[in-house]
């Protein structure tokens, strides 16, 4: 209030003075003071706006997604540690991303399938740039292979895959050292150790002999118009979606969305995670997201933390 009052007084005073009443030096000084007060007032208004967001019901100790961020963030984990703890769309570097602030926070979502509204049998160019609904809170999308490369080239990232079937059962798979190469290397995929409840379908390590033809480690990305797999035909064309194929897969999360789970087709072209529901069950939900492997979870944000009552 004091800043606003001071600004009004100085502005009114400066406007009331004629050239004969004041020298140019004094006028310049008043104009500079007015400019400074305006800047301070804008900062104060922004601060008050953020305080109002923090005090909204259900948002205690959380910041809302805010596109007026005044610094660059490498990923959603940096946003989370900077106080932005509500899931939503944010700006990082040169791209807009959806940040999932659940499950410990700081996840950059790279793929989302939830209802089949988006077709994933897309061209190389579309998978390169990304596609889908990047505005709706529950939109389906692929973030883009160029973006996957840029994010994972910044350091050591873990990939978490959340899956759900049509009966409401949920499983997850997590891989360390997830990395996507650049377009010259056809977005080659590499990843490390697995933990989870869905089974290790990406490496095909669930059964002897399977990894030779099913492991996606070191595989290049393929689409119907860019065949980079190890199969004599085109896996992406047969299975109707862009993905890292070998000969062809035990995991394919960009396949056809079948609305009832079990399906029949000439090939296993559904949203498949073989180690959980097999080749002929297409999952209801698939969400792929990234976070730095060394991300430190605050105990208050850790969903697996055990809260003990203080001793009496």
TrEMBL record:
Span of domain Fibrinogen C-terminal: 67-294
Keywords: Adaptive immunity, Coiled coil, Disulfide bond, Immunity, Secreted, Signal
Any single Pfam family the record assigns to this protein: Fibrinogen_C
SMART domains assigned: FBG
Compartments, record wording: Secreted
Record flagged with keyword Coiled coil: yes
Biological process according to GO: adaptive immune response; blood coagulation, common pathway; fibrinolysis; platelet aggregation; positive regulation of heterotypic cell-cell adhesion
InterPro entries linked: FIB_ANG-like, Fibrinogen-like_C, Fibrinogen_a/b/g_C_1, Fibrinogen_a/b/g_C_dom, Fibrinogen_CS
GO CC list: fibrinogen complex
GO molecular function annotations of the record: extracellular matrix structural constituent; protein-macromolecule adaptor activity
Signal peptide extent: 1-19
Assembly information from the UniProt record: Homodimer. Interacts (via the Fibrinogen C-terminal domain) with LAG3 (via Ig-like domains 1 and 2).
Summary of the function given for this chain in its UniProt record: Immune suppressive molecule that inhibits antigen-specific T-cell activation by acting as a major ligand of LAG3. Responsible for LAG3 T-cell inhibitory function. Binds LAG3 independently from MHC class II (MHC-II). Secreted by, and promotes growth of, hepatocytes.
Protein name: Fibrinogen-like protein 1
Species, as recorded: Lates calcarifer (Barramundi)
């Amino acid at each position: 209030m004091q800043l606003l009052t001071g600004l009004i007084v100085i502005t009114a005073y400066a406007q009331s003075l004629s050239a004969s009443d004041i020298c140019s030096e004094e006028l310049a000084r008043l104009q500079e003071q007015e400019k400074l007060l305006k800047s301070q007032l804008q900062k104060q208004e922004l601060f008050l706006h953020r305080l109002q967001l923090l005090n909204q019901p259900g948002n205690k100790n959380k910041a809302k997604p805010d596109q007026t961020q005044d610094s660059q963030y490498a990923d959603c984990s940096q946003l989370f540690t900077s106080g932005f703890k509500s899931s939503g769309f944010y700006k990082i570097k040169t791209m807009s991303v959806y940040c999932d602030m659940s499950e410990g926070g700081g996840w950059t979502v790279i793929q989302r399938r939830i209802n089949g509204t988006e077709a994933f049998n897309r061209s190389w160019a579309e998978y390169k740039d990304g596609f889908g609904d990047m505005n709706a809170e529950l939109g389906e999308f692929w973030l883009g292979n160029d973006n996957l490369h840029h994010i994972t080239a910044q350091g050591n990232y873990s990939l978490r895959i959340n899956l759900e079937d049509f009966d409401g059962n949920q499983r997850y798979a997590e891989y360390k050292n997830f990395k996507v190469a650049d377009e010259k290397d056809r977005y080659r995929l590499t990843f490390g150790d697995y933990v989870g409840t869905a089974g290790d379908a990406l490496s095909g390590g669930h059964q002897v002999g399977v990894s030779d033809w099913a492991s996606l480690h070191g595989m290049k990305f393929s689409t119907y118009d860019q065949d980079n797999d190890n199969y004599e035909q085109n896996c992406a064309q047969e299975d109707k979606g862009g993905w890292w194929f070998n000969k062809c897969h035990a995991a394919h999360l960009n396949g056809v969305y079948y609305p009832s789970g079990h399906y029949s087709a000439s090939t296993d072209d559904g949203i498949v995670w073989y180690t959980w529901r097999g080749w002929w069950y297409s999952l209801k939900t698939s969400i792929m997201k990234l976070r730095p492997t060394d991300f430190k979870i605050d105990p208050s944000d850790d969903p697996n933390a055990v809260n003990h009552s203080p001793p009496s």
